[in-house]
Amino acid sequence: MSSPYIYIIVPVFNRKAIIECFLICLGKQTFRDFTVIVVDDGSTDGTPALIAEKFPDVHLLHGDGNLWWTGATNFGIRHALTLAAADDAILVINDDIEIGPDYLASLYRVWQATPRALIGSVVVDINDPERIIDGGRLVNWWTAKTRVLHQGRRLSEFDENHVVHVSLLTGWGTLLPVQVFSEVGLYDAAHFQQCGDTELTVRAKNRGYNLIVSFAPVVECHLDLTAGINMSPQYTIRDLRTFFFNVKSNYRLKYRFFFAYNTATNPLAFVSFLACDMIRISVHFFSRLRFTQAHGL
Fold first, then answer.
1. Given a cut of 50, is residue 27 above it in pLDDT?
2. What average pLDDT does range 215-239 have in this prediction?
3. I want to staple 117 with a disulfide (CB 3.0 to 4.6 A). Which of 128, 132, 210, 242 is the partner?
């Protein structure tokens, strides 16, 4: 094992075909100094058996079904930290994407050229790999307004050396130097069962780390596997509980409160961000609310 080294953390639950495809992508990487750590949180579809049989080099950890994304990711990170050296890095990545053979090599080059930085990947649509889904996000920490950069533009418009400084990073391929976890801590599993990928990166930014998205490492996303309960063009009154309180909802009120609390740099910014964020998500829901007529009327 040489250093610097990358430990790849992949949480999974009941997506046997998806994780198999992703692990095949990792097996084709030109950069080889990495270890894959898959955290299976109680899958019942044969995922653990598949990984053990077809990918024996993967470190397979087993959850009890109650870890969710954040707990599973932390489980994998703790395992990686028992193996990692001080100058290694941890790649947090979801399984609903595919990557080309040079993905890790590109990510490694950017990492070595960018000290004290967390590095995100540009995200494209797997069905249209030229179309950018997420080229990085900028957040106004007073008004809670978020802007997704270069969304809908063609990847070929940008040089692979294109880098943007952003406000936060997601679980779609983020490389974190090992020292981040000793300085900032792990993901906040106490308050974010799901949707806990972005707030740690903001805490790191507040501690002096740079957050960048590089257009060299590209991830191709299966949008049909990621579109969730916050992406509907319209809602009914029955969706209200799910939208504001479900564990899988990005707009769960508990998540929004603790995202504002964990990332605010002062009390006034916390109050302003939270108030604006509550207005924002409420407008998103109620502007799409449709009342269906009773049958026969």
1. yes
2. 83
3. 210
CATH code for residues 6-226: 3.90.550.60
**40 neighbors 62 (Cβ within 8 angstroms):** yes
End-to-end CA distance of the chain: 71
Residue 119, CA distances (Å) to 40, 95, 171, 250 in order:
25, 18, 11, 22
**Number of other CB atoms surrounding residue 223 within 10 Å:** 14
**Residue given tokens 């080294």 in the structure block:** 5
- Token pair 């130097």 in the structure block, residue: 177
Say which DSSP state 293 is in: P
- CA distances to 50, 250, 297 from 236, in Å: 40, 18, 18
CA atoms within 13 A on the CB side of 224: 3
Q: Could you read off the pLDDT of 80-107 as tens digits, one per residue?
A: 999 999 999 999 999 999 999 999 999 9
Query: What Å distances lie between residue 62 and 73, 164, 201, CA to CA?
Result: 12, 36, 26
Q: What is the pTM of this model?
A: 0.93
Torsion (CA) 176, 256, 153, 99 in degrees, nearest 10: 40
Q: Is the pLDDT reported for residue 169 higher than 90?
A: yes
Strand runs labelled E in 79-188: 89-93, 97-99, 117-125, 128-134, 137-139, 146-148, 163-165, 172-177
Residue 65 burial (CB count, 10 A): 12
- Give me the residue spans of the domains in the chain: 6-226, 237-286
Give the residue among 96, 146, 119, 122 at the shortest CA–CA distance from 256: 146
- In single-letter form, the type of residue at position 92 comes to V
Closest CA to 221 of 111, 85, 127: 127
Indicate the SS3 state at residue 65.
coil
Res. 295 pLDDT band, cuts 50 70 90: very low
pLDDT grade, residue 227 (50/70/90)?
A: low
